[in-house]
Amino acid sequence: MKYGVVAFPSKKLQDLANAYRKRYDPHYALITPHMTVKGVFEANDQEIAEVAKAIKKVTNKHKPFELSVSKVSSFAPITNTIYFKAELNDDLEALHKDLNYNFPGDEPEFAFVPHVTIAQKLTSGEHDDIIGQLKMVGVDHTETIDRLHLLYQLEDGSWTVYETFRLDEDN
Questions:
Q1: What average pLDDT does the structure give for the chain?
Q2: What is the CATH number of the domain that holds 10?
Q3: DSSP 121
Q4: What is the mean pLDDT of residues 66-73?
Q5: Which of 27, 62, 96, 115 is catalytic?
């Protein structure tokens, strides 16, 4: 089964992302707007119990972090994905590192760019038309994230929460 670890932003930021995702993201109906902290990995029932324990240990070591989204960006020309770019701070970077290195599963294939996807699988023409408009509109949002979610993928391709982990306020 496929799993991943994400942070869900507030309803306010989700609503803003969904305003674009409805039109520009074919995954709109499959998953709520999110920031991936540990990308997709595979595990069986026994392995995921161990992974959940390991995630709990990590979240016990980390405090809630600030999610600050201040611009629209793109992964083009590698992929025509447009996203709200989150600023990488020390707390988020340390959390990502603990969940991706010296942890069950493979290390990430790409450098960590914290973001919330708002458009993907666009043609080059669509991407070029949309990115300029979205950059002009912009985004400016800051909030505190105090929990992470271990998700799993259902047979229909949608994702749902397997377990939620609170970040430790006392760290």
A1: 94
A2: 3.90.1140.10
A3: S
A4: 96
A5: 115
